[in-house]
Design goal:
Length: 196
């Protein structure tokens, strides 16, 4: 059964960096891993990409053809991917049943929290026998005394917990532990396979 991680978070939070680091780790351990870029605006990928949404649709093409801004174009791209999920499913099947797949989502968190397409795509992945979990990477707005950032991020986390049909983790992208959590082990999910 293939395993996967849905990697989401705000722009610049370290989603692609996380994917690249995990690819390096799995490669060093001689374990199979593949990365799927689902960000149609990301044209400077730091990692080797097994499946790239830009083979199906790109943000610039949508903006030019439909006269949309970047946010509207991203929503269109996610809806297009949902409608053409068979394109993604065929390519995922080529990776094999022992695949460990990272899905690198766009940086607009509202696509995961306020829009249905990403949720439907995740549901379709689980129906394809993918065992996935969500990983929400934060930019770590510390100190937590900044109530606006803290409240906004906690709201985002709560919404992700409500709408995401998968187990999920919160991962701070800096060396700090996130807020009240003093033990980094609290971020480790029991629902995904151990590396060693």
């Amino acid at each position: 059964m293939p395993f996967g991680e849905i990697v989401c978070g705000s722009p610049g939070s370290g989603k692609s960096t996380y994917c690249y680091g995990k690819h390096q780790l799995f490669t060093a351990l001689e374990r199979p891993i593949s990365i799927v870029n689902l960000d149609p605006a990301n044209d400077a990928l730091p990692y080797p990409c097994a499946i790239d949404i830009s083979s199906l649709i790109t943000l610039n093409d949508v903006m030019e053809q439909h006269g949309l801004g970047p946010n509207g174009a991203l929503i269109y791209c996610m809806e297009y991917l949902e409608a053409n999920f068979d394109w993604l499913e065929e390519r995922l099947q080529e990776l094999g049943n022992d695949a460990y797949v990272l899905f690198d989502l766009p940086g607009q968190v509202e696509l995961s929290t306020n829009h249905e397409s990403v949720k439907h795509i995740i549901e379709k992945l689980t129906k394809c026998s993918f065992r996935v979990r969500s990983l929400l990477i934060s930019r770590n707005y510390l100190p937590w005394s900044n109530i606006e950032h803290c409240t906004s991020w906690l709201r985002c986390i709560c919404v992700m917990h409500i709408i995401s049909p998968t187990p999920r983790n919160i991962f701070p992208s800096s060396s700090f532990h996130c807020g009240p959590c003093s033990n980094s082990n609290s971020h480790i999910s029991t629902s995904y396979p151990k590396l060693i």
